[in-house]
Amino acid sequence: MPPAAATKLGYTPPDGGWGWAVVFGAFISIGFSYAFPKSLTIYFKEIQEYFSVSYSEIAWLSSVMLASMYAGGPVSSVLVNRYGSRPVVMVGGVMVSAGMVLASFGRTIMHLYLCVGLIGGFGLAFNLQPALTIIGTYFQVKRPLANGLAMTGSPVVLFTLAPLNQFLCDTFGWRGSFLILGSIVLNCCVAGALMRPVNKNVRPKPTTEPPECNGEATEKAATADTSAQSANLLTEANQDEIKSQGCVHKFIDLSLFKHRGFLIYLIGNIVMFFGFFAPVVFLAPYAKHQGIDEYSAAFLLSIFALVDMFIRPATGLLGNTKWIRPRIQYFFSFAVLYNGVCHLIFPLLPGYVGMVVYAVFFGLAFGMLSALLFEVLMDLVGPQRFSSAVGLVTIIECGPVLLGPPLSGALVDIFKDYKYMYYACGVFMLVPGIYFFIMHYYNYKKLDEERRHSVVVEIRTCEEAVQLKMSQDGKTGHETDG
């Protein structure tokens, strides 16, 4: 196993112990956060007929829920930084449950947007972000593996909920099903109870680990002397300004918008998320549109989830190897590109067998991407700034998350065919995949240059210190002789 990137946490992460119980809690919490909006697509056809709405209007239900989950990221970040992950996750579970129960009494599609979309979506935000953050406090060396196992919760929960939702829909209708789902999602409160804060009294061991991918360590080493000198020249007004900025950074770190790796990640993800969720959201409705029966359509989601379930921990193990981890951003770029290729080929595959083949290969692609999605962000910004980074990323990504499925649904309404929607999603994944390859090559090149420069600066600083000491010793010797 390769050495982990250096951190400045002030303690040594246990890399195990109770951390595995935390991973299990994150497994449940993340599972419901990502799988819940996808599993609700089973009810789309019945709700669409009940309220007499179009494809694009019914697609807004999952979109509003996903967008609310992403928009609630900064609020979740602030609450996690203030109160910790455990209470935030438990409150989120109660919110999602309340939203589903209230939605079961809905009389209009707007009522569902409000209850399932807004209330349920914000509840999922309080489940997702704390679960991702706490893993970084418990794991350092085994962090890619821990993240991969936790992200496996999404396909496992989806694999279970897809056939369960079809059974509930046939037995109780969508209203009774929403009421039952409101009780099931309370398991997130149990998951939150497992997220005990890490013991930070253990001091870090001296290491010779390489700097993190963001190059922050090298930049700080290169400018250490300059910073020390400029600190003495600060005026009282500047000090007050720094204090006020520190209050803001205590809750969310806005300086990330000056971070090269973070900006590369953010720009690519904005484009990518226009085509990220729509293929999953419309997989079961597409199968039903092609004349496939309801259970076979739901089974496609189960196949997708089953493959996804196994590829996520495998991706975590592969990402933790000494060959992949030092350049894990390239692995992420390949996963994005692979998703785009799957969507472009899907319309060319014939019949239900073609749908099954697509579900398998899309499960591989989606699982790889999902397992790496937050690990590469933590690799770029480090565990200390990860909570703020997730909050900022999710609030910005909520735009494409919100608009992606409805725009795809509008393509279906216009052309009366799903293939153009999948072509569009393929392009939205293919372009950022190529972009990531190019920009991460540039980023790695710049980081290598910065590291070499920091070494040169450190050597020069040491030489100057030695020369200064020798000159001082010489002067002391002359004074003694005198």
UniProtKB/TrEMBL annotation:
Gene assigned in the entry: LOC115010925
GO cellular component terms, semicolon-separated: basolateral plasma membrane
Keywords tagged on the record: Cell membrane, Membrane, Symport, Transmembrane, Transmembrane helix, Transport
Protein name: Monocarboxylate transporter 2-like
Keyword presence, Transmembrane: yes
Membrane topology, from the record: Multi-pass membrane protein
Family: Belongs to the major facilitator superfamily. Monocarboxylate porter (TC 2.A.1.13) family.
PANTHER family reported for this sequence: MAJOR FACILITATOR SUPERFAMILY (MFS) PROFILE DOMAIN-CONTAINING PROTEIN, MONOCARBOXYLATE TRANSPORTER
Keyword Cytoplasm appears in the UniProt entry: no
Subcellular location: Basolateral cell membrane
One GO MF term: monocarboxylic acid transmembrane transporter activity
Catalytic activity: 3-methyl-2-oxobutanoate(out) + H(+)(out) = 3-methyl-2-oxobutanoate(in) + H(+)(in); 4-methyl-2-oxopentanoate(out) + H(+)(out) = 4-methyl-2-oxopentanoate(in) + H(+)(in)
NCBIfam families xrefs: 2A0113
Organism domain of life: Eukaryota
Domain Major facilitator superfamily (MFS) profile: 19-444
Record-linked Gene3D superfamilies: MFS general substrate transporter like domains
Originating species: Cottoperca gobio
Membrane-spanning residues: 18-37, 58-80, 86-105, 112-139, 172-195, 262-284, 296-318, 330-349, 355-377, 389-408, 420-442
